[in-house]
Design goal:
Length: about 130
Amino acid sequence: MDRLLKTTSLCISLAVLAGCDTPDPSPSVSDIFSPEPGIVCDRVAGFCADSYGISMEFTKIFLGQAAQDSILKWVKQNTQGDAADLSVFTLSNGVSCSSEQRLCFKGHLNSSTSKPYTAMLYQSDISQN
């Protein structure tokens, strides 16, 4: 269990902080899914997000208490008492989202918009083409 917790924490910290430039796969990838309109969950990174950012409530509902506990533990260990900014995050496939901009991008350092993820998360009317 401790190994799983460390792995999940690592995935969260990598997903939230690092990001990477990878191809923008279809949102139908089984590890990343949308259980309800406006919510995206990532089993690999261990969190769910809504239009405001990473959501503790939706993480618990769709991924379980252990996933929520992992996020809370990571936040406590890595914020040094500062408020964590969970409004910007990166999914395990490299797609990075900004709740302030209401956009998702094809990579943390890639300014190309990921239309499928932007539409899923922010219920945008962006064309899927």
